[in-house]
Amino acid sequence: QCLKLLEVFPSVIVEEYVPGYELTVWLIGNKDDFELICPLLVSVNEIYYFESKIITIHDKSQHNRTYSSPHNYFSQKTVDELINISKRIFEELGMRDYARLDFRINGSDIFFIEANALPIFSKSSEIGEICKLYNITYQEICKRLVSTITKRLMPEAY
After folding, report:
1. What gap in Å lies between CA 42 and CA 97, rounded to an integer?
2. Among 5, 51, 106, 127, which is most exposed with the fewest C-beta within 10 angstroms?
């Protein structure tokens, strides 16, 4: 397949599939000042551990994904490690204001999969699930985002 693709494209990226639990972490804040860090455990059709599943656009469009608190499945130590890794990645990538980071956990190993610097921010996105799972209103999350941006752009106001 790579040889066929190289006939059409100048380069090809090959990634190793990582089986495990899929988690996404939302962050709102900036370096050393986070207003919100919320990890979510992802399931598709009530399956949490993915041996070979790739979450597709079909899964997204059919609303086959659900989210739950990772605290129900992982130790506090693992969740804290995921949060600390998320903060470091956010800062190392020079991200600002908000982002979503995706991970896989396999055993005691945490694998960083990707960063989304401008994820959809709406009641129907993961933010809506965070509101439900963490008992935070959508308005409160919006206030935290505005506060984060204001602190960065107008620090004298704080």
Report:
1. 23
2. 51
Q: What pLDDT sits at residue 64?
A: 86
CATH superfamily of 22-45+57-157: ATP-grasp fold, B domain (3.30.470.20)
Q: Which of 37, 54, 65, 62 is nearest to 104 (CA)?
A: 54
pLDDT mean over 63-78 = 93
Domain-wise residue ranges, the chain: 22-45+57-157
How far apart, in whole angstroms, are the C-alpha atoms of residue 75 and residue 62? 31
Instruction: Assess contact for 122 and 17: CB atoms under 8 A.
Output: no
What is the distance between the alpha carbons of residues 56 and 147, in angstroms, rounded to a whole number?
Answer: 34
Output the pTM of the full model. 0.90
Phi, psi values for residue 14, rounded to 5°: -115, 125
Q: What is the pLDDT of residue 105?
A: 97
CA-to-CA distance for 120 and 114, rounded, in angstroms?
15
Closest CA to 25 of 102, 77, 126: 102
Provide the pLDDT for residue 50. 95
